[in-house]
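Example 3.2
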Amino acid sequence: MTSRPGAPVIFLAVAVATAVAAAALAPAALMDARLAELTGGAVRLSAAEGTLWHAQGELVAGPTRLPIAWRMEPWPLLRGEMRLHVAPAAEASGRGPRADVAVSQGRVTLRDVDVTIPASALAGAAQPAAARSVGGDVAIATADLEWAPPANRGAARLQWRAARLALAEGARPLELGDIAAELAANGDRLSGPVSNEGGELAVRGTLAVRANDAASLSLVLSPRRPVDPATARALAALGTADNGGWRLEWRVSLR
């Protein structure tokens, strides 16, 4: 005699099927509210077309508009995992962000990531007023990076190309060349050296992100040629003297 599924099992199956169907029909524009909540309104999703599962639109941060498309796999959600495939939007002619993202309990895996974002968009997401003080593009790339503290693994490269930074309102921007951070994941942290090529100042230091603790950046900026008095005063106000240059330290709590 074949046993029949009980009412709780049938109810669960119907509930799951209904939830998946409802999400499949949910408009992609719903993602905008979530983005606005996460970024304090600094980043929005505009011109969204499609559903939460398969859609495209534009990420908007201040004057920056980044075409983006994504596809979410529904069935991994049943085992508590979200898998998202990000690709350039159709009108971007192959140019735009690419990434495969998997998120489960205590684990985020990034594969084949190739994303370039205007530095002003990143600064604006952190602090809207800061968007006007930076220039250049930030490229983020990794073949395979897994954030699963205390067992992180993989590597990533961050590069701020044609980096430009205004230290004060109305001040002449500093040209810093191309700044790169080569990061390796190990244990509960992601860290590595920071350096630059070109620019008015030589940049050397370290960037470290430690799970459930903080992100910290320590840099020494050394002049390649004499800097103007206003820039020297601004750097002195931001950091401390270090062998003819200036040491700057930042720490952001992740708790």
